Amino acid sequence: MTSSVKHVREVAAVDGKLPDEMLRATRPYIVRGLAADWPLVQRGRASAESADAYLRRFYRDATVNAMLGPPQIGGRFFYNDTITGFNFHNVRGRLDQVLDELAEHRKRPDPGAIYVGSTSIDGALPGLRADNDLDLGGRNPLASIWIGNRTVVATHYDLPDNIAVVAVGERRFTLFPPDQLKNLYVGPLDFNPAGQAISLVDVRNPDFERFPRYAEALQHAEVAEMGPGDALFIPSMWWHHVEALSAFNVLVNYWWRQSPDYMDTPTNALMLAILTMRDLPPEQRRAWQDIFRHYIFEPDPANLAHIPENARYALSPLDEDGARVLRGQLLRRINR
Fold first, then answer.
1. pLDDT tens, 161-185?
2. 114 & 236 share domain
3. For residue 316, what are the domain limits?
């Protein structure tokens, strides 16, 4: 990364809140100090030990998933050299024991990597959100906590919109717009460290001989350097690489979708398309490309005017009942 890389734009909250238009943005932004008054942020500014003690006040025998890696991985949770496995292992244990391990690792000159990712706050630390929360205008987001030491999460995207709040420590996000897919050298869709396909490029030390198009991706990158209380909005489908830069880091994030809960993830459609269309002859693929454009990507009400509204079935506007019927039809077809 060089000084020529663009930095994520900074915006201001309105009366301490994010108005609806900001929560529907299509480009990332930072709000400095949005969570500066959280007790967790204030305790973290005092010391890692103070933040640790504050978190333990809300612990109620919760078990969590943790990723553990040896010092040799440099905090980067990734594949092994042959992409047949990973350079870390997963364990499940009590959150207070993970905090104990993190405290012990802070004393070591060359600690291993420890990371508790995407854990429900209300499940693991009930009551924490009472004084450490954001007002998202009536939305009911999935609120998660991420706890660890100096770790690196490879470039990936998420389907929901996302607000990430640095509560303790410092983080660096490197973001890429969705159209940079071809330049990010993404690995397997269905075999990856944490459920999302990731870029194989090490953002901290890119190998341009192996990944030459990554130089083009960097021309579109935006970097967010964040401290305690800062919040970053990451729009749906934006690629992001995350570096935790302190010996003890806590991040709180909120995920929500701008679509109804009954809609399935588009990833299912992608995997079905691989199963049903990717290996068709070129002319047939082009025909299906036109069909998808007609019905999905460039829909025009005039395309359906010849069908009575009561007879459009799957082509009707989708609602919860229609989604249930459509899902049942798909399951029967897949399982026949």
1. 999 999 999 999 999 999 999 999 9
2. yes
3. 266-335
SS3 track for 121-139: HHHHCCCHHHCCCCCCCCC
Say how far apart CA 80 and CA 239 lie, in whole Å: 22
DSSP 3-state assignment of 310? Answer: helix
CA atoms within 13 A on the CB side of 187: 25
Q: What angle do CA 326, 331, 336 make, to 5 degrees?
A: 130
330 and 189 share one domain: no
Q: Are residues 195 and 296 in the same domain?
A: no
Query: What are the tokens at 95?
Result: 């959150």
pTM score, two decimals? 0.94
Whether the CB-CB separation of 226 and 166 falls below 8 Å is answered with yes
* Overall domain count for the chain: 2
Q: What is the pLDDT of residues 218-267, one digit of tens each?
A: 999 999 999 999 999 999 999 999 999 999 999 999 999 999 989 999 99
209/250 same-domain check: yes
246: DSSP letter: S
